Amino acid sequence: MSLTKNQAVNSWVDEMIQLTTPDNVVWIDGSDAQLDALRAEAVATGEMIKLNEEKLPGCYLHRTAVNDVARVEGRTFICAPTKDEAGPTNNWMDPKEAYEMLGKLYEGCMKGRTMYVIPFSMGPVGSPFSKVGIELTDSIYVVLNMAIMTRVGQNVLEALGDSTDFVHGLHAKADLDEEKRYIVQFPQDNTIWSINSGYGGNVLLGKKCFALRIASYQGKNEGWMAEHMLILGLEKPNGETKYVAAAFPSACGKTNLAMLIPPEGYKAKGYKVWCVGDDIAWMRVGENGELRAINPEAGFFGVAPGTNMKSNPNALLTCQKNTIFTNVVHNLDDNTVWWEKLDKNPPKNAMTWTGIPWDGTGNGAHPNSRFTAPACQCPCISDHFEDPNGVEISAIIFGGRRAKTAPLVYQSFDWNHGVFVGSAMASETTAAASGAVGVVRRDPMAMLPFCGYNMADYFGHWLEMGKKIKKQPKIFHTNWFRLDDEGNFMWPGYGDNMRVLEWIIARCEDKLDADVTPIGYVPKPEDINLEGIEDEVSIDTLKALLTVDPALWEEDAKGLEEFYAKFDRMPAEMTAQLNALKDRLAKAK
Ligand code: OXD
Ligand code: MN
Q1: Interval 508-563: pLDDT, tens
Q2: Total number of domains in the chain
Q3: Is 249's C-beta closer than 6 angstroms to any atom of ligand 1?
Q4: Which end of the chain has fewer CB atoms within 10 angstroms, the N or the C?
Q5: CATH code of the domain containing 428
Q6: Residue 320 Cβ < 6 Å to ligand 1
Q7: Rounded CA separation 223/378 (Å)
């Protein structure tokens, strides 16, 4: 029975029931009793395995189909009315054609199954930043993940009232056929249709589909920003906390930075880092012209392999209870889980992520295996995590993975130059990652697969937002991945990134000078604190980490020019920024 009198919700749910013809319909009220019953049902059917209650209380293991382990960018579409509105970096389908084609796939696809109706809020229920969605799904796994990743239940419907402003999300596993797998956004209709997948990023519709693709479009129209950014608070010894939002391409350590543990010397002085979010930031202009941000999610959907007590103890501690593990190794000796680099003791008696006995060779866990864990369990979760007014952002960081070009850190000259720096974000393959070294993938603001409209207009929106924000955050670029001539990483990364954050905050507070270079302000080497890591990073290494080679940058500017050429309506300011960079580089030679 429906849990709401909202006509728009009820008639849309009825229409989707007629389309997909489930045997039962269950509204999710968010109660523990209901979620417990669903957990028990998923265990009974084998959809989830209950793990050791002593060692991992409230934890479960799930395995996806082997052909369904990651986001599928090639099958992800932005169905705006015209191709031009989706822009050259998105796949596009005519909305009418998409509804027709997918409608056929959805026809009767829930026969013999139950449809779950999940009312969810992105952001604290009732916050001025928050938005409501309803996801219809035939997967208990999706219900239980959504209950961790978002705020789910009856109170969301109460907050919605009789408003028609909600995202309409329809997900069906159908038969998991990868040839008929589609992840389709209709930004103009506030609608998401996802079919033939059971993997997180494709089916937890609150995350990438809503909180980035649909929300970026809403943000452009409503004057706010939905960004692929972590949010962290850096508490100084005097008790003051400054907040930073940072965008990095996928798999460049966003979750690690968001939960950073400061080096011993910093801890001793009283520095702390607090996590507000690890993946998505929704940002609005506050009453005093400041930029404020919330994390719209309620949990972490983190990559398991590589997470360990050294790389990210906070993440590991977060996923010790009430967590759903997907596609990791099942340790049969004590009914727990394992993944590559968790520790040096792979289990002897275990099943791989595909559910077959593991002989210890090859990958036991899938490289994209995940944990879904409640954010409130994170030992360093910020006091402002549930703050309906968000936190004030002092600095924005764009990160790249560059072998040589980008220095460890630099600051843009101003907001517009910072937007240009974000548009030039890129990651580059290293020898360790693949055979081809130096292949540059442009990923502006880490939004390439997540921007719900034409990216030229997205850059325009960033420029417009700059005009609205009176207290503009300073914009920086970092590169933790610089290599020496032998191909070794020059910077230790992880907790030592705190040293760079300290410089960034000092620059925001106008406490330090910097060197002016053609690409922006670069630290004076003596201003990056190397105390405690002098053996690893000599002052000469630091100087090398901070060099800017105009010849390499001229090459890079050419690549960026080619990227810009894909767009037929790049804002004039962006092209002007590119030309200004080229001029500065020419003069530097
Ligand atoms: C993610 C991603 O899973 O960015 O967060 O791919
Ligand atoms: Mn992400």
Answers
A1: 999 999 999 999 999 999 999 999 999 999 999 999 999 999 999 999 999 999 99
A2: 3
A3: no
A4: N
A5: 3.90.228.20
A6: no
A7: 32
Nearest ligand 1 atom, CA 207: 5
Q: How many CA atoms lie within 13 A of 246 on its CB side?
A: 31
> What's at 537, amino acid-wise?
V
Is the minimum distance from the CB of 124 to ligand 1 under 6 angstroms? no
Task: Give tens-digit pLDDT for 106-135.
Answer: 999 999 999 999 999 999 998 999 999 999
Closest residue (by CA) to atom 1 of ligand 1?
A: 250
Residues 269 and 201 in one domain: no
Contacts with 213 (C-beta within 8 Å, 6 or more apart), sequence order: 78, 185, 187, 192, 450, 451, 452
**Residue at which a domain ends, from 192, 222, 252:** 222
54-74 pLDDT, tens digit each = 999 999 999 999 999 989 999
Is 380 catalytic? The answer is no
Residue whose CA is closest, atom 4 of ligand 1? 250
Query: Rounded mean pLDDT of 301-327?
Result: 96
Residue 343 and residue 283 share a domain: no
Instruction: Give the span between the Cα atoms of 25 and 17, in whole angstroms.
Output: 8
pLDDT digits (tens, 9 = 90+) for 133-145: 999 999 999 999 9
| Alpha carbons 301 and 250: distance in angstroms, whole number | 13
Say if 70 falls within a structural domain.
Answer: no
Region 358-367 average pLDDT: 95
Catalytic: which of 79, 109, 209, 252? 252
* Best mutation site among 64, 69, 71 for ligand 1 pocket (most ligand atoms within 8 Å of CB): 71
pTM (global) more than 0.85:
yes
Name the nearest CA neighbour of 382 among 227, 208, 244, 238.
244
**Structure tokens belonging to residue 418:** 């910072």
Query: How deeply is 246 buried, as exposed, middle or buried, from its count of CB atoms within 10 A (0-12, 13-18, 19+)?
Result: buried
373: in domain: yes
Residues 215 and 246 in one domain: no
- pLDDT in the model for residue 14: 98
481 and 570 in a single domain? The answer is yes
Q: What is the domain extent for residue 324?
A: 299-377
